[in-house]
Write a structure and sequence with these properties.
By secondary structure, this protein is an alpha/beta fold. Helices cover 63% and strands 7% of the residues. The protein is built from 25 helices and 9 strands. The strands form 2 sheets. It has a 7-stranded mixed β-sheet with strand order 2-3-4-1-5-6-8, sandwiched between helices. It has a two-stranded antiparallel ribbon with strand order 7-9.
């Protein structure tokens, strides 16, 4: 059996921060077998022979969610040599209750009382010797943020995994366990009675004041201004410029070596250009992930879920849905993965089904292109209107598909705290890595495919024009289906490529239009194309994430529903536009 150490603890106890600290390297991630709960595994720095598994957050081993079921099954299966039970030292009851459950199972464990620095700021203290006596496990006061006490904890875990740990005490009946947890917390932890400090007053303002919702909306606005405003666009422009220089340098080098024209174009436009189309959005995506990680670690994200819960209930959603929705403006893939934290299967399904209406950042360049062509004096307003239109349709969809019963919303609000910069950077890097590897590979392959199909004609001979290429032939074959929408083959091809990646759709459109959409669309046709692009199916990477989380059946339903809705909206718009145009010519 693999030498495994598990990390267990209630949500918001600092367990993942401790995991990052004691493993130190990039974690391998995936899903637990048979469920959609994320699995994170690393190697213990103190002894790389040991594998460390970060178990999903759980208040109890009596499961009320998928996460708690996974944790319970893992521990019941005796899959770990030792367990680190992480306890929030500022609110110890939940961690002590879980430790009592571990004791009842006879699991060899070590207690990590986290947030030592915050405990001291509160004027509190913990009697570790008394805690060890009550629970039967070695106990250490640590700070996962600063690393305090973690060295001794790691040594004790290795001793326990080797069979030298303390033996667990006698189990307690479950109706007695809550009472015992409260009594142990009172006897082993002391807190100084103090008046409300600045953080306590700020906490109350963020959650209970009449301005709580306004503050939440303001923070969302600030995030968008940072990501899509000056900082994000400048960083994206710098990356675009770097890749342009790389493309020119690669082209010049290949020409000097006498490479053929098609080989130069394949590497410069297909490979480097394809990879660059993803990486150019990485700065904006990283900024969004950084801000979200900051809000999560500071404790505000839980407060945002709390204050938005009442409003979202009217649409069949809950407060936890706000997190994947915000992430959806960056990329649908991590947004779908974020939705798994919702313990309600119904709300999780409704949230994921509504995410395709939220416009991801990969669509933004195409919107900017169309806004510049169609609304040159109102570009910002046009793009904002597109995003607002998507939000409105998402809310309408959720309202029409909500169920009458309302799931309870139980959420432990963590204390306001200044997050660790190191922890935020690690979390951002981890999320960006997932973005690049899950979405980037698909985009790169799609762009190379677009180049090949647009460069070669039948028999794989170089085509004289895009219309004679394999891409043009394919577009003309599908075009009759889109004729009622006013979309010709030059518009069908970008839509088809957009299924692989929205950036690939933009690349194909620029290629076929020569950089000017007026060459292939009239104003009415351009708006019809734009409406279809706004509402049709998300990319294959997003559909793959949906399939992974909710199954192939749900992914197919979303694909066909979104595409049918987009077709219907574009059809109605273009037919009315054509009708009024005909009436105008007659009159």
């Amino acid at each position: 059996m693999e030498k495994t150490i598990a990390l267990a603890g209630a949500p918001n106890c600092g367990k993942t921060t401790l995991f990052n600290l004691i493993t130190g390297s990039r974690a391998a991630t995936g899903n637990w077998a048979g469920v959609t709960v994320e699995k994170k595994i690393g190697r213990l720095k103190a002894d790389p022979d040991y594998e460390v598994v970060d178990l999903p957050g759980a208040y109890s081993l009596t499961p009320y969610s998928l996460e708690e079921s996974v944790t319970r099954d893992f521990l019941l299966g005796r899959c770990a040599k030792a367990v680190i039970c992480v306890i929030d030292g500022t609110k110890p009851e939940a961690g002590i209750y879980l430790a009592l459950e571990l004791r009842s199972l006879g699991v060899p464990a070590v207690l990590a009382v986290n947030f030592a620095d915050e405990l001291r700021k509160m004027g509190g203290d913990v009697n570790l010797a008394a805690l060890e006596k009550e629970l039967g496990f070695p106990a250490f006061l640590i700070s996962a943020k600063s690393g305090e006490g973690v060295g001794g904890l790691a040594a004790a875990v290795l001793r326990t995994a080797g069979g030298a740990g303390l033996l667990p005490g006698a189990p307690l009946p479950e109706r007695e366990r809550h009472k015992a947890a409260e009594e142990i917390a009172r006897s082993c932890f002391t807190f100084e009675e103090k008046g409300k400090g600045v953080l306590e007053k700020l906490d109350r303002f963020l959650t209970e004041s009449r301005f709580a919702v306004l503050v939440c909306l303001l923070l969302v606005l600030i995030m968008f201004l940072v990501v899509f405003g000056f900082p994000g666009t400048v960083l994206k422009g710098a990356v675009d410029l770097a890749f342009e220089k790389l493309q020119r340098a690669a082209g010049a080098a290949l020409s000097a070596f006498g490479a053929s024209g098609w080989a130069i174009s394949l590497l410069v436009d297909g490979v480097i250009g394809g990879f660059g189309s993803v990486i150019s959005f990485l700065p904006q995506t990283a900024l969004m992930f950084f801000i979200i990680s900051f809000l999560e670690d500071s404790g505000y994200m839980a407060r945002a879920a709390f204050v938005s819960d009442k409003a979202l209930r009217r649409f069949g959603l809950g407060g936890r849905s706000i997190i994947p929705v915000l992430m959806g403006f960056g990329c649908t893939v991590p947004a779908v993965l974020a939705a798994k934290s919702n313990p309600s299967q119904r709300e999780r399904l409704l949230t994921v089904s509504a995410l395709p209406f939220i416009q991801c950042s990969a669509k933004l360049p195409l919107y900017l292109l169309f806004a510049a062509e169609l609304f040159p004096k109102h570009r910002a307003g046009a793009v904002a209107g597109i995003y607002l239109l998507g939000i409105i349709f998402a809310l309408i969809y959720c309202y029409l598909n909500k169920q009458n019963e309302s799931a309870g919303f139980v959420l432990e609000i963590p204390p306001c705290r200044m997050p660790s910069l190191r922890s935020i950077i690690k979390s951002t890097a981890y999320k960006c890595e997932g973005f690049v590897f899950k979405a980037g590979t698909v985009v790169l392959a799609a762009n190379v495919a677009v180049w090949v199909l647009s460069f070669f004609g039948p028999g794989f001979r170089p085509a004289e024009s895009p219309a004679e290429s394999l891409l043009g032939i394919l577009g003309r074959f599908i075009a009759p289906i889109f004729a009622p929408l006013g979309i010709g083959w030059e518009g069908v091809v970008p839509l088809f490529c957009g299924l692989a990646a929205k950036e690939a759709g933009l690349s194909a459109l620029l290629l076929l239009s020569g950089g000017n959409i007026g060459n292939v669309f009239s104003p009415a046709q351009a708006l019809s194309f734009l409406l279809f692009f706004i509402f049709y199916s998300p990319c294959f990477a997003a559909l793959g994430a949906i399939k992974e989380e909710l199954g192939a059946k749900t992914a197919f339903k979303i694909f066909f529903f979104q595409t049918a809705l987009a077709y219907g909206i574009s059809f109605v718009f273009y037919q009315f536009a054509a009708l009024f145009q005909n009436l105008g010519s007659v009159l």
